[in-house]
Amino acid sequence: MKFFRLLVLCLSFSFFTYQISAQASSPKIKVYLLGTFHFSQTDSTYNVLDEKHQQSIHELCQIIAKQQPDKVFIERQPEYEFQNKIDSLFTLFSKMNSRKLRAKNELVQVGFRVAKMLGHEKVYQCDHPGRYGSLYSDSQQYAMANNQMGFLDATVKGTAVREDDLVNEDSLMQNSTLLEYIQWINSDAVMNTSHASYVSNYPLVGSKGFYNYEDDHTLIGAELTADWYRRNIMIYTKMISQLTFDEQAIFLIMGGDHIPILKHLFESNPSFEVMNAESWLK
C-alpha cells in the first residue's frame, strides 16, 4: 500500500511538473500596441484624407501588417456592435477600394486597412466607458477652489511635465509626415511622461488632512486616476477575453494615453510579450 501511494505521488508530481514545463515552453503571444491621435478630431488644416497623409497612412499600415497580427483590435465598445455596426462596415470595406474611403477616423484608416491587408474576416472591438471628463472637471474645480492648480499645471514640486506639453504639437504635426508624428507619439519619452501625469499629478489634488467618507471630492484627483486605471483594465480584459490563446500576435490601435497601462498589464501576464514600438515602428 505504501508503495502504491508513493507511485501515485510520483506520477502526480511528474504530471504537475510536465504541465509547468509545457506552459513555460509555450510561445508567448506578441502584442503590438500603437498609440495614436484621433484622426477625425484635428482642425481643417490637417486633413488625413489629403494625398500626402494617405500615403503616410499606407506606409504605416504596411509596417503594422509586416508584424502579422492574427487579430486587430480597435477603440470601440463591443457591447455597442448593434449601434456601431463595425462588422458590417468592415465587410463592406473589404470589398471596396481603400483609396475611396472617406471616413477620417483612425479605426477605419488604420485598423480596417491592416485587417484587410492581412485577409482578416473581422476586426475586434475592446473599448470601455470611463468618467474621465466629469472627474477631470471636478478635479479642476476643486483645485481652483483650494489653490492646487499647480498640481494640474505641473508647475510645482512632485509633479511630472508631459513631453507633449513641451513642444508645439500643431507645428510638429504640420512639419512631420503622419507616420513620423505617430512614431513620436509612441516614443518612450512621450509615453512615459504622459503616464507619469496620471500617477504624479492628479492624485495630489484633494484633501491633505483626512478622508471624509461623506465628501466624494476629498480625494478627487485619486478618483480620476483610479477610474483611468479601471477603464484600461476593462479594455485589457475585453482583449484577452476574445483570444483563443492560439494567436501568435495581436495588434491594438488606441489613443496614446491608454498605452502605458495596457503595456504594463500585458507585460505582467506571462502569456504575452509586448513588442517595443520604437523598435518595430520603423
Low-pLDDT stretches are 18-22
- Biggest sheet, spatial arrangement of strands: 3-2-4-1-5
Distance between the termini: 65 Å
State the domain count.
1
| Estimated helix fraction | 40-55%
Rg is 23 Å
What overall form do the CA principal axes indicate?
globular
Would you give an account of this structure?
The chain is α/β, with parallel strands linked by helices and 282 residues long. The chain has one domain (29-282). Helices cover 52% and strands 9% of the residues. The protein contains 13 helices and five strands. It has helices at 2-25, 51-66, 81-84, 86-94, 106-117, 132-145, 149-153, 169-174, 178-185, 188-201, 220-240, 259-268, 277-280; strands at residues 29-36, 71-74, 124-125, 249-255, 272-274. Strands 3-2-4-1-5 form a five-stranded parallel beta sheet, with helices on both faces. Helix 2 crosses helix 5 (106-117), helix 6 (132-145) packs antiparallel against helix 11 (220-240) and helix 11 packs across helix 12 (259-268). The longest helix has 24 residues, at 2-25. It is globular. The termini are far apart. Mean pLDDT is 90; it is low at 18-22.
Q: What labels describe this entry?
A:
282 residues; alpha/beta; 5-stranded parallel sheet; 13 helices; 52% helix; globular
Describe the SSE topology.
Blueprint: H1 2-25, E1 29-36, H2 51-66, E2 71-74, H3 81-84, H4 86-94, H5 106-117, E3 124-125, H6 132-145, H7 149-153, H8 169-174, H9 178-185, H10 188-201, H11 220-240, E4 249-255, H12 259-268, E5 272-274, H13 277-280
Parallel strand pairs: 1-4, 1-5, 2-3, 2-4
